[in-house]
Design the sequence.
């Protein structure tokens, strides 16, 4: 382990207790930056975040402040409440997660695809780091599953490929209950690039990152919300007054969603089927990315998370 990036006379133990002893305030901004970047370069952003959390823990203990217990993750709360309402439901005691389709534009033997899958799993696993220690979390995470569909021939790409994904997912009858939702996930070349090339979520808060990793959430029921389309609830021509009676009329049936929010934000929104896909992401436009089901829960493409132009669907 290198100590060249520590201030003169400092080591790991002294830095770990620096906030507790008040010595961290004596460091110059340059010394703090040198240590921060050096630590990240040697151990990675995730380890740096854990180290800072340990520093905070030592500081709290030094002040006699009891450690706050880890909070219940949103997906575990959803499972618990669902089972409370349905005493005979056992699906959350089994495998749970998402079905993930690979775009035919991505070659299966492409090294970036293998690396992208590994990084996708890393981002998902790091997304629950703040809840580590919560009772039952490890057991629930062991049952988490992503079913990768890599060899399906969509016969198209782009938005036509998205429609093929929706039809293929809707037609399946073998999807486990814990993975069967109103939405499936789709990885396109652009989303694969975002997973590989965007900073890891553990490096900075989402508000401070301009680019974030995302996948495409595809509604297999999207046709139900487009009056006039073949296969929808109302086929043929419909006038404006009639169309407005149908929720989400004309929406595209898919939206980008941040990988880091799949478990704690998207899963709770769809697992109990309390919200339609359009209610969740119908207001997400273009290359914007859904992060959370609230007014400012959309990461604006090229702008960032805190863009007040983000619109919300009336509830």
Sequence:
């Amino acid at each position: 382990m290198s100590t060249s990036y520590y201030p003169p006379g400092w080591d790991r133990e002294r830095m770990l207790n620096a906030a507790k002893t008040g010595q961290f305030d004596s460091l110059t901004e340059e010394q703090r930056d040198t240590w921060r970047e050096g630590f990240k370069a040697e151990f990675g952003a995730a380890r740096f975040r854990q180290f800072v959390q340990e520093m905070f823990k030592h500081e709290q203990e030094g002040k006699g402040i009891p450690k706050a217990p880890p909070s219940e993750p949103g997906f575990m709360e959803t499972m618990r409440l669902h089972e409370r309402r349905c005493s005979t439901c056992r699906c959350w005691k089994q495998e749970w997660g998402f079905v993930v389709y690979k775009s035919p534009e991505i070659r299966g033997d492409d090294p970036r695809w293998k690396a992208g899958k590994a990084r996708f799993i890393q981002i998902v696993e790091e997304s629950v780091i703040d809840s580590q220690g919560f009772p039952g979390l490890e057991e629930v995470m062991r049952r988490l599953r992503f079913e990768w569909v890599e060899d399906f021939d969509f016969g198209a790409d782009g938005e036509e490929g998205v429609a093929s994904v929706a039809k293929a997912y809707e037609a399946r009858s073998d999807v486990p209950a814990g993975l069967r939702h109103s939405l499936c996930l789709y990885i396109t070349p652009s989303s694969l690039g975002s997973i590989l090339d965007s900073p890891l979520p553990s490096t900075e808060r989402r508000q401070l990152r301009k680019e974030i990793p995302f996948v495409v959430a595809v509604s297999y029921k999207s046709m139900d919300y487009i009056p006039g389309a073949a296969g929808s609830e109302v086929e043929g021509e419909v006038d404006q007054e009639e169309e407005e009676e149908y929720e989400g009329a004309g929406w595209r049936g898919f939206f980008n969603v941040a990988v880091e929010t799949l478990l704690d934000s998207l899963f709770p929104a769809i697992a109990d089927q309390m919200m339609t896909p359009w209610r969740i992401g119908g207001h997400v436009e273009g290359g914007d990315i859904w992060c959370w089901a609230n007014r400012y829960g959309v990461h604006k493409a090229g702008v960032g998370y805190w863009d007040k132009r983000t619109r919300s669907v009336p509830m």
